[in-house]
Write a structure and sequence with these properties.
This protein is about 45% helix and about 25% strand. The chain has three helices and four strands; from the N terminus they run H-E-H-H-E-E-E. It is elongated. The mean pLDDT is about 90.
Length: about 150
């Protein structure tokens, strides 16, 4: 009886099938992780933008009364043309327009108490997942009392 050192066709096909299955599982996991990281980055950017709105209220550079009942700022809004924002004295409004252009905001204030005067400020930042076609819109909502 001869000893054969070569692989049979069945062994080669089975090895290729196993490699294909493992490769598919690994690539699916990598793609899913990449999407999740991108979505988390976008959420963090939206939260930072909403926090920047709150910082402007905390520093009293925005008038609380101007946002009673809420104001909406759509995606790509040009803040350099907004009289409330320009009156705030921010030295670089064009940069704000650039940084916040990917987001939509709803900014709302409510006088929480009159003695002492306290305001409730709520900023909702909407964002879209860029990697998905059409992009699912999500939101981050921050609230503070000042």
């Amino acid at each position: 009886m001869k000893s054969s050192r070569a692989f049979s066709l069945l062994e080669v096909v089975m090895a290729l099938l196993i490699i294909a299955i493992v490769s598919l599982a690994v690539s699916t996991t990598l793609i899913s992780g990449s999407r999740s990281n991108a979505n988390n980055r976008e959420r963090a950017r939206a939260a930072a933008a909403a926090e920047a709105w709150l910082d402007r209220f905390r520093s009293y550079s925005l008038p609380f009364n101007a946002f009673v009942g809420g104001r909406d700022y759509d995606y790509g809004y040009d803040y350099t043309r907004d009289p409330i924002i320009t009156a705030s004295g921010d030295p670089n409004i064009a940069e704000i327009t650039s940084e916040w252009g990917d987001f939509k905001f709803h900014v709302e204030t409510y006088q929480f108490s009159s003695d002492p005067v306290l305001w409730r400020i709520k900023v909702t930042a909407y964002y879209k997942y860029k990697r998905e076609k059409g992009g699912n819109e999500e939101r981050v909502e921050l609230v503070t009392i000042r």
